Amino acid sequence: MKNLSMTEPGEQPETRVEQARRDLLDRVGAFVMRHDLDVTGPNLSVICAALSGTNGVLAKTFCAREISGDPIDQRWLDTVVRLDPETGERMDELERLMDQLEFSLIRYSQSARSAHDETSEHRGTIDAQIAAMSESVGSQGDDRDTAAEVERVINLSRAMLDRIKQVETAMAKSQAESEQLRENLAKARLEADVDHLTRLPNRRAFERTLTSAARRAQTRSEPLCVAFCDVDRFKAINDKHGHDAGDRILVSIAETFSTHASDQCFVARHGGEEFVLLFYNFDKDAAWRKLDGMRRAQAAKMLVDRKTGKGFGKITFSGGIARIEGVQDAREALARADAALYEAKSAGRNRIVAI
After folding, report:
1. 249 CA to centre of own chain
2. 3-state class of 320 per DSSP?
């Protein structure tokens, strides 16, 4: 790297800011090359945040990993990104804003309904007064001036009544629209929690469920386990058979999980070829037996590519399990489950490891 004393003739020396930027770029590039990582936007973003120190948690995580001598590969980097606590905080903020929107819609609907009822009541009162005044005009007969004045008041009242009817109609329409908006919001929230391919709950739903499940388990002093699962050799399947075939395999594995799950087992697609499960009131041994049963059921399937008629062979997954010891331990348990999954992969795949 060029420093202030090593400038070419005619060149302006670099400022300290420029030097720092060049140094950071050099460090990021060296890190990518040293660990043979993909040059992608997400990779460069997280590496830059760690090496620059702008994200203290990432900086400590990277430092600890290098000190331990454990491999820093693409899989580990993906794990760091998806287990970043800030992701959960962003999801919490989105959930809070949606709650505020729904509450505002409820209040607006209530106000519109109340205003609608009031105008209906006023309209009835004015209508009755117009009828009484009309009768009065008929009974006064010869007093033409008085009758004309009353008639004018009646006409004004009728005009006011027509206007109230218009306002009432508009408010009724607004109320109906706000109710429809609430229904659409409820549907959108439900759809936002579903993975469109497998129809399982998605990562967003899992993040919220994880927190509530950990809190409930801690309150009730019940065991709670989490598992990470990953389709074995999924990249090779995609490369050989295409992404459409890969999608069908993900759907098949999702069906296996759903078929063997229960009210005590929450299953979600975490992203890509990864799935995550929560086992309510299961200790590690019981969770292992349950998940291993799912693994054996999946391994027994013989899947066929419907386009070519050729079999995919045996499609399996590996899993890692860890127990969640409390609300504060939830994310650490996720990391432990992921480490157990890595151990299962390293041991030959198609197996479950609990740590």
Report:
1. 23
2. strand
The tokens for 214 are: 């950990």
Taking only the tens of pLDDT, the chain with its 355 residues reads: 444 444 555 556 678 888 888 889 999 999 999 988 888 777 888 898 889 888 777 787 788 778 777 778 876 777 666 655 554 455 455 556 566 666 666 666 666 666 666 666 666 666 666 676 666 655 555 566 666 766 777 776 777 777 777 777 777 777 677 677 667 666 666 667 889 899 999 988 898 889 889 989 998 999 999 999 999 999 888 888 888 888 989 999 999 999 988 889 999 999 889 999 999 999 999 999 999 999 999 999 888 777 777 778 889 999 999 999 988 888 889 889 999 999 999 999 999 999 8
Question: What's the token pair of residue 330?
Answer: 């939830």
Q: How far is it, in rounded angstroms, from Cα 279 to Cα 267?
A: 9
Instruction: Compute the C-alpha angle 10/16/17, nearest 5°.
Output: 110
DSSP line for 258-313: HHH--TTEEEEEEETTEEEEEEET--HHHHHHHHHHHHHHHHT--EE-TTT--EEE
Report yes or no on whether pTM surpasses 0.90: no
With tokens 């697609």, the residue in question is 269
Give the residue numbers marked as catalytic: 273
Say if residues 133 and 171 touch (Cβ distance below 8 Å): no
Query: What does the domain layout of the chain look like in residue ranges?
Result: 16-82, 88-192, 203-354
Homologous superfamily assigned to 203-354 = Reverse transcriptase/Diguanylate cyclase domain (3.30.70.270)
The helix/strand/coil state of 313 is strand
